[in-house]
Amino acid sequence: MTLREAQTAVDRWIKEYGVRYFSELTNMACLTEEVGELARVIARKYGDQSFKESENTSLGEEMADVLWVLLCLANQTGTDLGEELRRSFEKKTKRDCNRHINNPKLK
Ligand SMILES: [Mg+2]
């Protein structure tokens, strides 16, 4: 699935089952909440904390939740995430093409 296809699929789902998009501010709060849930799984899976019984342990599920809300925000703000990601690759390649290669901490 491309990012364009994902944006279209989320838009269809929202119109069919979600009635309408939550406001941009609400979705920003939801995005922050989902990032926190992802951080919680990572802290327990790779950090020093342990999972409680019956706690969600799925990294992929939380990543998908983050992506879902980001796709909603992209749709409601008229953002083409595929194009923006392409630009981001271009920007990072121009800016950082030697930076990481020359970083002795990464060797
Ligand atoms: Mg979640």
Automatic annotation (TrEMBL):
Residues 23-98 form the NTP pyrophosphohydrolase MazG-like domain. Coiled coil: none annotated. PANTHER family: NUCLEOTIDE PYROPHOSPHOHYDROLASE. This is Nucleotide pyrophosphohydrolase. It comes from Xylanibacter caecicola. The lineage of its organism: Bacteria, Pseudomonadati, Bacteroidota, Bacteroidia, Bacteroidales. InterPro entries: MazG-like_dom, MazG-related_YpjD, YpjD/YvdC. Signal peptide: none annotated.
